[in-house]
Specification:
By secondary structure, the protein is of the alpha/beta class. About 40% of the residues lie in helices and about 20% in strands. It contains nine helices and eight strands. Strands 7-6-5-4-3-2-1-8 form an eight-stranded parallel sheet. Helix 5 (about 90-105) links the parallel strand 4 (about 80-90) and strand 5 (about 110-115). Helix 6 runs parallel beside helix 7 (about 160-180). The chain binds pyridoxal-5'-phosphate. Pyridoxal-5'-phosphate binds near residues 196, 212, 214 and 215.
Length: about 220
């Protein structure tokens, strides 16, 4: 199926209130253009160099979300171009993004990446670290970032019960975050980014309202 028809199919299938991030990493600007022509405006990229090369080749009203691990020394480079960073995985990165956003006089949306999957290599706050961070009070000290929610991935396993348990844990962490932020200054915390090509339906059942889908739309990536 073509990129356009995959986009149309997903737009028809996703329940109201669930946003689609089209993950275009490893796919050229031409592929982005096809999805754009089908009405898609929200795209996700996970590598800074690739994103910076692609942006000038793509329509200027695209919203770019950064979804990959962000090294602190690359923050400055991406900050002018991204509307949301899904992958805030340390307090240091969070503070740096805030400082950089302040410096260029803008506000940026961020999601806290949480780690619940069984794989050890994934980035993100464990439930314990997340608890520490959210109870520390730091989230309400940041003037140039808006903490909009959480992003997470389920374990890469075939067991649907395990995947659903991971998604429910991510949803729980989100619910706690909402409580913490509500008792501060009322920044809009409304985003649960979870679900990829192989597990987005289950993620939505477990409460996701933002899915990040690459392979289903664009085909297999060639690394
Ligand atoms: C690549 C990637 C996706 C998309 O994965 P697909 O399986 O191709 O849908 C989603 N989220 C993150 C963080 C990714 O790096």
């Amino acid at each position: 199926m073509s990129i356009a028809s995959e986009i149309h199919k997903l737009q028809a299938e996703l329940p109201e209130g669930v946003r689609l991030v089209a993950v275009s990493k490893f796919h050229p600007a031409e592929a982005v253009a096809e999805a754009y022509a089908a009405g898609q405006r929200l795209f996700g990229e996970s590598r800074v160099q690739e994103l910076l090369q692609k942006i000038p080749l793509c329509p200027s009203d695209i919203q770019w979300h950064f979804i990959g691990h962000l090294q602190t020394n690359k923050v400055r480079a991406v900050m002018p171009y991204v509307t949301c960073i899904h992958s805030i995985d340390s307090e240091r990165l969070l503070r740096l993004v805030n400082t950089e956003a302040e410096r260029i006089g803008r506000t940026v949306d961020v999601l806290l990446q949480v780690h619940v999957a069984c794989e050890e290599t994934k980035f993100g706050f464990t439930p314990e670290e997340f608890e520490c961070l959210t109870s520390s009070g730091i989230l309400s000290e940041l003037s140039a970032v808006r903490v909009r929610g959480v992003m997470g991935m389920a374990s890469n396993v075939d067991d649907n019960d395990r995947i659903a348990a991971d998604f429910r844990l991510i949803k729980n962490m989100y619910d706690k975050l909402v409580e913490v932020l509500e008792s501060s200054d009322g920044a809009p915390c409304d985003t649960i980014s979870m679900g990829m090509s192989h597990d987005y339906r289950l993620a939505i059942e477990c409460g996701s309202n933002m899915v990040r889908i690459g392979t289903t739309i664009f085909g297999e990536r060639e690394y």
